[in-house]
Amino acid sequence: MLRRTLIAIPFAIAFVLNMLAVIARPLGWRSRHIEGYTFLFATPWAWLLDRDWLVVHNKIAEEILTFAILLWVPAVLCSLCFWLFLRTFRLKG
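^ thats the sequence. predicted structure below, dont judge the formating
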């Protein structure tokens, strides 16, 4: 149970940040704070994600790609690190 929870935490964080980012602007919330937390979540992986590998000229596709790079790719990478840690030290839960 602990193992599954630990691996799922990054996805939960990414989901919450994604939903807050989507609803913040229409409701007039301070979206800068939410964007700051998003960048904080993606910072450990910036060296890997900030390469401009994909160039997109469509605005909607660019926003989707930005959310994927800032939230979902770091969630996958973080979960993989947790999984490798648990696997290496053979922690059961």
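The CA atoms of residues 43 and 72 lie 13 Å apart.
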